Description:
Blueprint: H1 9-28, H2 34-37, E1 48-49, H3 51-69, H4 73-87, E2 90-91, H5 94-103
Helix pairs in contact: 1-3, 3-4
Amino acid sequence: METKKRLTREQKWEQAVVDLINQMFIIAGHDVTYNDVLGKEKWFMEYSMTVEQSEEFRKWGIKYLREKLKINKKQAEREIMWFNVQWGLTYSNWEEYHKTNLES
Length: 104
């Protein structure tokens, strides 16, 4: 019987990045995956999402990181912020969203 090799912590994080990027594209409504953008420079500038989609992704990502990597909520929130700095998509409705929130 073959036993399944456990992933190292680094391998788990690498898989998490792939999963996060794939889910970000799904939430943003883009028919593209991590493998499609692998090796491209500044691919994250080619795609956009709404502020609302970004918030949905943030919530999903925090839950995912807590479950998959067994980290606490504060650390998961911090990791999602760093993820967005590095690979987050641009906002398609930032000005509209910002203007609406300033008026209310």
